[in-house]
Amino acid sequence: MTDSEQARAALARQIIDVNLYMTLATADQDGRPWASPVYYAVAGYREFVWVSDPETTHSRNLAVRPQVAIVIFDSTQPINTGRGVYMEAVAERVAEEDVDRALELFSERSVRHGGELWTREHLAPHTALGLYRATASGHSLLGPGVPRAAVSVAS
Predict the structure, then answer these.
(1) 72-97: per-residue pLDDT in tens?
(2) Which residues on adjacent β-strands are paired with residue 23?
(3) Which domain covers residue 71, as residue numbers?
(4) Phi, psi (5° rounding) for residue 109?
(5) Helix and strand tally (H, E) in the chain?
(6) How many CB atoms are closer than 10 A to CB 115?
(7) Which of 31, 51, 92, 117 is the most buried (most CB within 10 A)?
(8) Is residue 155 a part of any domain in this protein?
(9) Are 33 and 24 a contacting pair, CB within 8 Å?
(10) What value does the mean pLDDT of the chain take?
(11) How large a percentage of the chain has pLDDT more than 70?
């Protein structure tokens, strides 16, 4: 990997690490788009986990069309200075056998940001919430002085 590619990868990882919300873009079965900001936790810069009500538009959309797009960026940056990480991913509700690991990942980040410790008691059938994950198949970095190009962020 060249120095430039390493710098781009480091910037992409930093953007993912410091932001709290990602914009999740879904589409329904007819292709109508929908975008939702969700608080996330991440593992290996490829697995993104969040909690949502299964009846929200984005949750219903990914149940019928699991292909999603994700962007993470700092919306407080001045005009013409922001950079973002764009991803293609496949999303799903976390399978029962993976809930504990995904919940631990989500809970750890939540607590680190002043949120609560998440347990199975926070999830359905106890509440109206489900645990979801998206697995990114590709990342791109875009912003001033950074032409859009694929970037390898694997840790």
Answers:
(1) 999 998 988 889 999 999 999 999 99
(2) 37, 71
(3) 3-150
(4) -70, -40
(5) 3, 8
(6) 13
(7) 51
(8) no
(9) no
(10) 93
(11) 97
Residue type present at position 124: A
Q: Is residue 37 part of a domain?
A: yes
Rounded to an integer, what is the distance from CA 105 to the centroid of its chain?
13
**pTM > 0.90: yes or no:** yes
CB neighbourhood size of 16 (10 A) = 20
Structure-token pair, residue 33: 């788009």
Nearest to 19 by CA among 75, 67, 66: 75
Which residue reads 């970095």 in tokens?
Answer: 141
Q: Write the CATH number for 69.
A: 2.30.110.10
Taking only the tens place, the pLDDT of each residue in 134-150 is 999 999 998 877 766 67
Residues in the chain, pLDDT under 50: none
Alpha helices in the chain (DSSP H): 3-18, 57-64, 99-112
d(CA 132, CA 95): 9
- Helix (H) / strand (E) element for 131: namely strand 130-143
